[in-house]
Structures
1.
Amino acid sequence: MSKMHIGIIGAGTMGSGIAQLAAGAGHDVILVDVNDAVVRNAGAGIQKSLNRLVEKSKMTNQEAISIYGRIHFHNELNILKDSQFVIEAIVENLKIKKELFVQLENIVNPSCILASNTSSLSINALASALKIPSRFLGLHFFNPVPVMPLVELIPGLSSDRYAMDTVLECMQQWGKISVIAKDTPGFIVNRIARPYYSEALRIYEEGIADFATIDYAMTSIHGFKMGPFALMDFIGNDVNYAVTQSVWEACYFEPRYRPSITQRNLVSANWLGKKTGKGFYNYELELPLPDTQNKLLLSGIANRILYMLINEAVDAWYFGLASYEDIELAMTKGVNYPMGLLHWAKELGIQHCLSGMETLHNSYKEDRYRPSPGFLKLISDVHE
Ligand code: NAI
């Protein structure tokens, strides 16, 4: 692929990361933000990130200088008039994003491809603001962009093959692993990962175990890198809660995604996690020790959360949110799960996982625990 003129709008966390990535792949990048202070900070932030890579011998000082030299910082959209591909990474607000796209279409050429890095808004709703919606798609990166290998591509109803193919080729050249998701709330990763948090919260709320023990169960038994509470504190409870709430609302209040009052209380108290020093854990004190002895309790917790995750992945596959392969890639490359959830189901036995869900459903009699119809299809596919 030849070098392109890339425009990125929004020089915050994500926009800066995307700019570094695109410049690292050799493209000329213009990074635009309405806020002058953000534009200045973005330059310093990218430089710091590149310096770290030099210190770790991942690139030479000369390479870092060249990459930085390919990024041009601006506060005016008009500068994007010759861009061939523009990625929007501004504030997560439908009205503001739509207004931006209307403005942008009056500036760029009709052939310029447009993408949004939205994590929760409908791609079709954003596309509805455009005169040429065929050139538009969702392009969801993960934070930190230069490090996380995955990107989700989300075509809208109008997105054309050319736009998809061009962006797919571009992502490959930028060293990313692409998966294709339907335009559904949370796309693949943020949807399938919900039970990791919500079921852990539910187990805590039932008084079954404390945060440290639930975290320990997931890391020690199933090999997750971080337990759910440590991870929510790391992501930020405000961010994690907002994603849950938006997926829940956008899925017509599906009980599986219902947010937790425990987490809402933390957000209200500004106990946002690591960034405020306090969340589920108090990072100014010594962290509490888990109960490591009660093996039955630990495996009960770990399996319950895993069944719920598998149920979610099976459901996503059954309803065609993404292909089997992309669901597996998304969860291993987007959130570092130790194994693809569909493969995990096969290892444990699909019937065994279905029975796990049925036991939960029978004991709670709540819709939240109903097994996905996809289990039966998966079982019949395996036996074909
Ligand atoms: P951020 O708050 O760090 O940056 C957003 C930037 O957009 C700000 O600097 C703001 O000044 C600028 N902005 C707002 N309106 C603008 C406009 N009309 N024109 C130009 N610039 C404007 O936000 P962040 O975290 O970088 O998120 C950006 C987008 O990426 C959001 O849609 C978010 O949902 C999505 N996203 C965020 C992830 C994360 O982990 N932070 C992960 C994946 C997607």
2.
Amino acid sequence: MYKINIITAFPEIFPGSLDVSILAKARKKKIWDLNIVDLKKYSSQNKSMDDKPFGGGPGMVIRADVLQNAYEKAKIFFEDYNFENVEKIMLTPDGEEFNHSIAEALTKKKGLLIICGRYEGVDERFIEYNNLRKISIGKYVLCGGESAASVISEAVLRLLPNVLGNEKSKLEESFVNGMLEYPHYTKPRVWNNLSVPEVLLSGNHKEIRKWRSEKALYLTKKVMKKNKKNDS
Ligand code: ADE
């Protein structure tokens, strides 16, 4: 069973999108399981969760000792597993950027221990001490890592064997082979004066494959161009 454990100061955010549709079914089938560790429980009256940054500056920083107590508790969820085979992830905008190939690589692990940052960040010594892998989900700053934890978990879980209804759809979707997927159409054949491309109704599978691969290439180039422009 693939296990995901998330350390967060806002446990009420979960399971959210992780417990609906195919992921809920897969969890019932014991393909994967989720545990949430509430960071707030590891602070106390004389030791709050966060404090002012040394050296000054805006915002608050989550304390390493509070995080470490939560981390030790989170490890128990993986006690039947070799902890080396669990990816330990710190979510932060200054991490390596998450993508399809990282998601695929993470499916080869036994599970994920994900720490969500909040406020200005977390004490860097906690990340260093536990040798955490810093991951970002994109070049923008969120209020915290919780949405990023859902994004990463969802992207990884749907790639696990027997999670998707149709295993074949994983092979054809966007980002596999570095390409975006071709566009899809269904009934009705004409909608608001827009027709389904004729070739898709032809029954000629060779022509359909050709059309789809041309469309995928065209779309990939177009989006790559836009992304490049947005990055500059
Ligand atoms: N926390 C805040 N912003 C983030 C981002 N872009 N990715 C991951 N974690 C974050």
3.
Amino acid sequence: MKTLILKIDKKNPERKKILLAANIIRKGGLVAFPTETVYGLGADALNPKAVKKIYEVKRRPFDNPLIVHIARKKDLFRLARSVPKEVKILIRNFWPGPLTLILKASKIVPKVTTAGLDTIAIRMPNHKVALDLIKACGKPIAAPSANLSGRPSPTLAQHVIQDLYGKIDLILDAGPTDIGVESTVLDLSSPTPQILRPGGITFEKLKKVLKDLVVHPVAIGKKTTILAKSPGLKHKHYAPKAKMIVVEGKNRIKKIKELAMKNIYEGKKIGILAISKQLNTLKKNCIVKFFGKNKSLKLVAKNLFKLLRELDEEKVDLIIAEGVEDTGLGLAIMNRLRKAAGYKIIN
Ligand code: TXA
Ligand code: MG
């Protein structure tokens, strides 16, 4: 299949390009499009044949449900039933934005979209291209991240090209995504709201509007014997090709340097994902990638998946990543890092 790639203006998306993309989706095709978190791979959420193609091209397990994207808040009430009272305040505060709500699904939602569950994941993205596209389709759009299953999520159109070129109809390229980690998945289908996947909206922000809020143990990203409630979280995820270790805690700089030196002596090619400037000294012997110019968690989140892909391209044998604290955006970052490392953590 030939994949068309179109640059599109992030702030003022060209109408012609939006209509072309919407037409593809209406006819049952697949379009990769930008959101504020990562690029999504979109299909008509109400067309089972089109949704099935998403699983096939991503090589995604069929038991891992998709997020349905909408452009008007009121569409939530067509897709969900028995909507709990917390929804109102949540969508007033956080939509459009990186918050996905898990609710009981209504009858119009095909089983393949929810992977056979009786719940549905819904979000309203905060990106003009995504919103215009959904409106022009006149349909909700089912979209997982536009990567091959198990690869880091795409934050640039280039990443989508790496994974899906030749397999999908169109890629809309609006440049780098802002947030860089995916949306927060919040389960509202059981009595106490529960974060299943930490993401762009932090625990602390949600806690301001929700009296009761818990974080599912799997969401923290540490190894646990408790079963994941979000099917996606039990699968291998965000894995770079190289072996990876995350080093956390107070003495992490010293430990990273020791670990790097030990592995260099063993003849290995080492990549370092660094935040602290003290790791600059490793540049002589390792490929050191800094998340950003300063220690802001926003920059770490924004650059995380891109740097994982870059280190893979360098064909390093081992990636050593500097950890951050589990607060604010740090929870989402550590969830991704720990899982990318297959839970190999030093602290
Ligand atoms: O930011 C995002 O959320 C991006 C952009 C494209 O919107 N999308 C994204 O989709 O990250 P995906 O498919 O990569 O991740 C969706 C997550 C998976 O962990 C999946 O298991 C979970 O949401 N999920 C979807 N439906 C669910 C449901 N009914 N119950 C529990 N978890 C669900
Ligand atoms: Mg994904």
